[in-house]
Amino acid sequence: MGYLNNGRVNIVITNRLLRFTYHKNPSAEGLVTHGEVELPEGTIKDGTIVNKSALLEVIHQLVRKHKWKRKKLIFAVPDDTVVIRQLQIPISLTKEESISYVNTQIGNSFYLPFANPALDIEFLGEDEQNRNILLFAYPKEKIIAYETVFEEAGLKPIAADLTTLSVYRYYYLQQMEEKAHVLLIHWNQDALILTAFQHHKAVFTRYMTIEANTEGNEEIAKEIINEFVIEINRIIDFYHFSITKGEASINRLLLTGDFSFLNSVKETLSESVTIPIQSFEKEELQSAYIDVLGLALKRDV
């Protein structure tokens, strides 16, 4: 009810910019305002806040300009350090008990590349003794750092999400297509994120940094596109042979992001794969806003 009465701010942060919407309710029709702000260079590096005061000033200005003081906020963190794993746990555990159980298994039955993780899980199928789950792990200190800045700027963060999950939420809730094996290609100016979805659950993700500056340079952009299209094809094969053991293949590509040459990406991809490619050029807002629009569709928690 709080969302309907007071509206909610939704913010996606990358290493180079902050994109936002303000919605009066969690629907495409609830959009009140939107925009993006380029962050001062060096504010965020590899998803980590390097210059807190610079980020705080950017958010402060937005809060003052749009009168967001004490508004609820859901934000999406950079996907650079998320880990997605499929695990088995005892079937008798509740969700809360399952997270506690998974915590006890870190460093024993499986490992994470960072300490002190924030964990979330989704239940999958089960047999008589075990339940299959999807584990999402993210460095807790990164999330806390963002929450602290938002709170100091006057907002009330109530949840964090992943950018790729937000994009897929928009696709699923707006398009309602029943494609079981989808590869999301979220291509921004500074990074490419490939996430495979199986029956609407993220089962694999890979984050690749784009070091070169392609702004206004079509030749460099073409080189990067050709290089990463090869990688996309490798991931498509990896999904077929390793993740599904040859039993299924990617049957839909979703192409989104704020990369300046997204149309060239689509053309090059079309020449190398026979899989249907869906992008969002015809949306009311440009494709770059699909991430934050998907975030806005997340219900209050």
From TrEMBL:
It holds the Pfam family PilM_2. Transmembrane segments: none annotated. This is Type IV pilus biogenesis protein PilM. It comes from the Bacteria. The lineage of its organism: Bacteria, Bacillati, Bacillota, Bacilli, Bacillales.
